[in-house]
Amino acid sequence: MRSSLFFAGLCLVSGVLSMAAFADDNIKQPSLAGAWYPASAKALSTSIDGYLKEADSRTDRDVGVVIAPHAGYDFSAWVAAYGYKAASKRMVRTVILLAPTHHFSFKGASVWASGAFKTPLGVIAVDEDLAGRLLAKDKRFIFRKDVFEGVPGRAENSIETQLPFIQKVFPEAKIVPVILGFPPEPDVLRGMAEALVSLVGERDDVLVVVSVDQSHFHVDTEARMIDQAGLDAIKKMDVEAFWNGHVEGTMEVDGFHVVSTAMLYADALGYDRADVLKYATSVEKTKDTSSVVGYASVVFYRPAPETAGRSVVEKNKVDMVLSDVQKKRLLDIARLTVNAVVRTGKAPDIQETDARLLQEEGAFVTLKENGQLRGCIGHIFGEGPLYATVRDMAVAAATEDPRFSPVSKDELDAIDIEVSVLSKPVKVSSADGIVLGKHGVIVSKGRANRGVFLPQVATETGWSKEKFLSELCAQKAGLAPDAWKDPAVTLEVFTADVFGEKK
């Protein structure tokens, strides 16, 4: 429970401020009031209250991301209310708004980093600290005012339509408005997700709102089929399928690249459950089925911990436990693969039906020869079914570890194989959150400097925590040995289920 001092502090940094707090040229004036939503403060407030009252949403979940439509309020605000209501119990100090551009083609992302935005309900301040730090994360993150304003006769709606809901549901919140460029660039989207993960970390007072509509201008029956395909991929948290569906034209979210970014962010911070709270098309309001627009309200949330008092890492170890049979199967896959790739140059075609081994998880494969390291390669994050990751990492450990020459046929009988199946990494605020021998550690500074040690490194070396972290920074991340003490350096921990052929 938050203390009364926390609430008092919020009152001192209220996001809704008087216009006198900012210079006129630093306030984004409303462009859609009176057209897309009511221009009267009373009418606007009353209408949002009505939408929220009618929305049937659970409010007891730990919601970290909301997808909300951004059409005129007569068409889509009643759908948007479902997501906002679901997140309404969260104590939010900052809302990060991720939105597409409708009028410009540009690379990177535009971040509005200072001042405020005005609506009929008042002025909502920008979180200048967080926005400034986001801009500094990547040179491709810039500020372009025109992207937020639109073009003559066609104002940009993706940010502005969300603001009255934020002001009503989270009256103390500030905002960080971000518009992602188009055509989409996968590196920019990954960079944005990684930047937001590093900035938000373990904060529980930040909400991400994704402003997108669904398909446009199909007949109603076709629109619903197209939208269902995209929403199914979102519910499964399958970013690859979602992306490919838009490349192939089977899905059509207006701002699919923005949703992809939010999915990467949500998954990294443990908001890995998605629920479509409400879906509708414009036919509900217009009765015209010949050319409709789709709208959806979606939330990403964290599952409730099964047992109170668990650590943050343990809360993310969902279905982590492997049976002895499953462990033996993974070791057999690794052994079969190493033998085949060394003897024939080709990895075997392996099929698997065990649902546990089809889960997407990170894994490392370690090879040892006469007790000495002979190769070790892995993925921290899952990039496919666990069994396939183990197969691929077995190939890499035997043939691609840059520290060693490829394993030869003569060595095969002397090679012992070890597999490490990893939990999802979780950020810790300092080295105090690291337990040697239990936690593997990832250290990173930006995208260029990143390194990882598995939990067994501490056990096998006997290093102290300071030595462990210093070697991790110097050996693996290309940083100064004491960089782990730098507040700009990110520390993440994970656990590993480690098992091998050698008992």
Describe it for me?
- With 503 residues, the protein is of the alpha+beta class.
- The protein is built from 16 helices and 23 strands.
- The N terminus is likely disordered.
Largest sheet: 9 strands, mixed
Q: Count the beta strands.
A: 23
The CATH top-level class label of the largest domain: Alpha Beta
Note the total helix count: 16
What CATH architecture of the largest domain do you see?
A: 3-Layer(aba) Sandwich
Q: CATH homologous superfamily of the largest domain, by name?
A: LigB-like
Structural class: alpha+beta
Features:
disordered N terminus, alpha+beta, four-stranded mixed sheet, Glycoprotein, Type 4 Pilin, elongated, nine-stranded mixed sheet, Protocatechuate 4,5-dioxygenase, Chain B, Dna Ligase, domain 1, 34% helix
Write the layout of secondary structure elements.
Blueprint: H1 4-12, E1 16-17, E2 27-28, H2 41-54, E3 62-68, H3 73-86, E4 94-100, E5 106-111, E6 116-119, E7 122-125, H4 128-135, E8 141-142, H5 145-149, E9 150-151, E10 154-155, H6 163-169, E11 174-182, H7 186-200, E12 206-211, E13 216-218, H8 220-235, H9 239-248, H10 256-268, E14 273-281, H11 283-286, E15 292-302, H12 312-315, H13 324-344, E16 363-369, E17 372-379, H14 386-399, E18 415-422, E19 426-428, E20 440-445, E21 449-453, H15 455-461, H16 465-476, E22 490-494, E23 496-500
Parallel strand pairs: 2-6, 3-12, 4-11, 4-12, 5-8
Antiparallel strand pairs: 1-7, 3-15, 5-11, 6-7, 9-10, 13-15, 14-15, 16-17, 16-18, 18-23, 19-22, 20-21, 20-22
Helix pairs in contact: 2-3, 7-10, 8-9, 9-10, 13-14
